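Sequence only, no structure available. Ideas?
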Amino acid sequence: MPKWRVAIGSDDAGYDYKEKIKADFLADERVTEVIDVGVGAGETFPYYPTSAIAVATHVAEGRADRGLLICGTGLGMAIAADKVPGVRAVTAHDSYSVERSVLSNNAQVLCMGQRVVGIELARRLAREWLSYEFDDSSPSAAKVAVITEYEDSLKGDS
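Reply:
I predicted one. Tokens follow.
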């Protein structure tokens, strides 16, 4: 069974779900550490990308294995997190998409919208997400390698 260090973050629109899912993670034997980058109660970041970039940076730098982001829709968080080199973030609100995000795309960051799904579904999807591991020998590995190679080629352009 894999053991995960999970970075978690939200904006004020996703705070309630973040707190509930964080509690679930803290009680989950598969999670060895939960790194909460914010927001805290009554706190707001100037913009949602602040939280997304913080979580994605934890993943990219190896301080976390996975990242979970919650905002109103999950869309802006995914866009912002995907800007961090080495990170693949997705928005998923159903079991099949959560599964495929990891097994087909090796996504390390899951984004969800508090205004899009109910809390029980969000909690279930977060639990399911922890059960998947990307297989480097799968047929999808070659496809993910194309993404990684392209991203690596951009490093010389900076």
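The chain has a mean pLDDT of 95.
Hope that gets you unstuck.
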